[in-house]
Write a structure and sequence with these properties.
Strand content: 15-25%
Number of strands: 20
Distance between the termini: 23 Å
Largest sheet: 8 strands, mixed
Shape: globular
Length: 384
């Protein structure tokens, strides 16, 4: 039996696990359930697949509780090109090496059970978790999986030949593809990857809006009390939800990516089409003026908003009446508790953590709040 079980094995789950381990939780009392062969595997594969050289977040956002730990790690390992730009965005490879080093140091691989949770029950102050026909018991549970369950495939692109989403589980990644559909940072990185892969090829980037320039997923003011104080004072979940939607820079990219794309436009190797696609049929992209043959289309169109439709979440709502706010998201406490001794992070914690809930900083804030619960339990045991 575990004291703590984390469902999910991505960046946020590992951040929470390391925080608990750093505070004294024994590895034998921690379980991490994730279907991938290695922790943080999906994040590693996704960022590698689009050839992202540097992360979008600053170097103080990573999986270790000490915000300067990644910078110290880079210095210790004598890395060059360890960060980029005024916000010191970390090199992707160094970020992953740092993450894997900490996974090893905190013995998290031995905590990892490879599998998917199919059912969860609560009985006598314990949570019982079914994973591959085996029941596991845990006093505390953290649901820390991401919002990337279902790649979003636009209706025009469905059931068309040689059209694939870059984040499908088994992508038909065609390095010779000439067409990308998407408006954000993933589409930009993917386009640049294709341009580099074949110096003689002309690439077409199809967007549904003008390029939106933002350094981060949201204004940096949301990383601290400047904006979050006002957010926490909002009593309406709908007001919080609407504020989050308005403040998140969905489908945006940093300025340097736009400049790199413009360089290829000037060279005559890239064409950006805005709001032009009217239909896609049988290897042709249709616009109001013309039809263009495509060899292969790679979609970088993000993910569906389907986290509340995941079977585990639906079961908690149906069987245990896990509270749902008017906006449709979990109604949780400030320490991210949804049901007794069951906590959430990421998109499930939007209404408490705000616009940055889903990224690396959201994981750090979730780890901080959940670790306060752990520390209170330890303090209570020590004084009782």
């Amino acid at each position: 039996m575990s004291s703590w079980t984390i469902i999910g094995g991505g960046i946020q789950a590992v951040t929470i696990a390391i925080k608990l381990r750093s505070l004294g939780l024994d590895a034998s009392k921690l379980t991490i359930i994730d279907p991938h062969s290695h922790l943080c595997e999906q994040f590693d594969h996704y960022t590698k697949r689009i050839n992202m050289p540097y992360l979008r977040s600053p170097c103080v956002h990573h999986v270790h509780p000490n915000p300067f730990h990644l910078k110290q790690y880079g210095k210790k390992m004598h890395y060059t090109h360890d960060s980029y730009g005024p916000y010191k965005r970390p090199n992707r490879d160094i970020f992953m090496e740092h993450t894997h080093d900490l996974i090893h140091r905190y013995n998290l691989n031995n905590c990892h059970i490879r599998g998917t949770v199919s059912q969860i029950k609560h009985d006598q102050s314990q949570w019982h978790i079914l994973c591959h026909n085996q029941w596991l018991s845990s006093t505390h549970v953290v649901i820390a999986f991401g919002c990337n369950h279902d790649p979003y495939i636009p209706e025009l692109c469905q059931n068309q030949p040689d059209v694939s989403h870059i984040f499908q589980d088994n992508p038909q990644f065609n390095h010779n593809a000439s067409h990308v559909i998407g408006s954000g940072i993933s589409a930009a990185h993917l386009t640049l990857k294709l341009l580099k892969a074949n110096s003689a090829k002309h690439i077409h980037l199809w967007m549904k809006k003008d390029i939106s320039i933002h350094d981060f997923d949201a204004d940096p003011g949301w990383l601290g009390p400047k904006n979050m104080k006002h957010f926490s004072q909002l009593t309406s979940s709908t007001a919080r939800y609407n504020l989050i939607k308005a403040e998140r820079h969905k489908g945006s990219m940093p300025k340097e990516l736009e400049l790199r794309l413009k360089k290829y436009i000037a060279q005559g190797r890239l064409t950006i089409h805005k709001n032009e696609v009217t239909n896609i049929t049988k290897h042709y992209i249709h616009t109001e003026q013309y039809c263009m043959y495509y060899d292969h289309i790679l979609l970088a169109t993000g993910f569906k908003e389907s986290i509340m439709q995941q079977p585990l979440i639906k079961q908690l709502v149906n069987d245990y009446q896990a509270p749902i706010a008017h906006c449709g998201l979990p109604s949780i406490t400030p320490n991210l508790e949804w049901l007794p001794n069951l906590y959430v992070s990421g998109g499930l914690a939007d209404l408490e953590l705000g616009p940055f809930a889903r990224n690396i900083m959201g994981g750090r804030e979730a780890a901080l709040r959940i670790s306060e619960v752990y520390e209170n339990i330890i303090q209570h045991k020590a004084t009782s």
